[in-house]
Amino acid sequence: MAWNEPGNNDNDPWKNKGGKNQGPPDLDELLNDLGKKVTGIFGGKTSQGGSGKSFSSIGITILLIIGLIVYAFSGFYTIKEAERGIVLRFGQYSGTVEPGLRWKWTFIERIIPVDMQSTRDLPASGFMLTQDENVVRVDMQIQYRVVDARNYIFSVTDADQSLRESLDSALRYVVGHAKMDDILTSGREQIRQSVWQELEKIIEPYSLGLIIVDVNFKDARPPNEVKDAFDDAIAAQEDEIRFIREAEAYARGIEPRARGRVKRMEQEAIAYKEQTVLDAQGEVARFEKILPEYKAAPEVTRQRLYLATMERVYSNTSKVMVDVEGGNNMMYLPLDKIIGQQSSGRTTTQSYTPATQPTTSINTSPSTSTSGRSDRFNSGRN
């Protein structure tokens, strides 16, 4: 018969083991012993008849202790260096905490971290109507940063969305009061500054806790249907500006050179004038010195002037006059041609003798011989 069949069966393997009535440990007894030990640790007293009640109070105490520990550790949090923490106590603003390790009352306080140092981007674009009733697509982007965490969270429902709508309003207002040529070409910087000022004017009453760092005018273009015509117009305007700049550069380059030439010509004219005056004064002084001598000996003075003039004339030429012995003819040697032929290699040597036919002859007058003039010429030079 099996040990666990109904009836009087004492074949339980946990009993009478080793000759003694031994069985499996009783769960109630284990819990009772554990409760006594815990109660002893905390200084409590055990009761003989209330083991279940003692165990329940001990369990609750342990759970409370564990819950307090978990609650204490759950209250620690960290605020990053670039953030500020908004403290809400029962949903109401209680203050702002600085970066670092902090502690809060869990389930009572709530912390909202707000990034205060990062620069955020916000784009805006769309087709807009200009003052001269043209349609243009404008792309713009702003950069902003949070400066007041409380206003950023509580001033409006969504500060970023409010800023987006304000940017769109400011952009359309400025574009609507500007001409299309200014938007596409030379007025872009003015449009950017006007949008910046108008945006700050719009968001100032709302106290969004934001500051506009920069406004970037990214692009402005006409609709695709008329883009080619506007591109041609813009190219023509750019060519006009380029031609004007080139003309101004040419004028700046040529004008100083012209002024320099004018100054040089003026200086040369002044120098020529002074030289002419000085030459004339020198001739006058020379004439005044020669005049008394001419009055004293006219013939001698006339011959001296003639010889001095011939010396000055022949000193500037390469022709040499030769007095032919025994005749009344004088010939000259074309030394310039001879030197030129020798330098070019076409003539190596040429010899001339008194018997050679002269190239040019000069007939002397009977009253004055050639040799006499030559002697006087030589004596004058000496």
TrEMBL record:
SUPFAM superfamilies: Band 7/SPFH domain. The gene is hflK. HflC and HflK may interact to form a multimeric complex. GO terms for cellular component: plasma membrane. PANTHER family: AT06885P-RELATED, BAND 7 PROTEIN-RELATED. HflC and HflK could encode or regulate a protease. The lineage of its organism: Bacteria, Pseudomonadati, Pseudomonadota, Gammaproteobacteria, Alteromonadales. One of its GO terms (molecular function) is peptidase activity. Its main location: membrane. It is a single-pass membrane protein. It comes from Litorilituus sediminis. It is found in: Membrane. Residues 74-234 form the Band domain. The chain crosses the membrane at residues 55-79. This is Protein HflK. InterPro entries: Band-7_stomatin-like, Band_7, Band_7/SPFH_dom_sf, HflK, Membrane_HflK_N, Stomatin_HflK_fam.
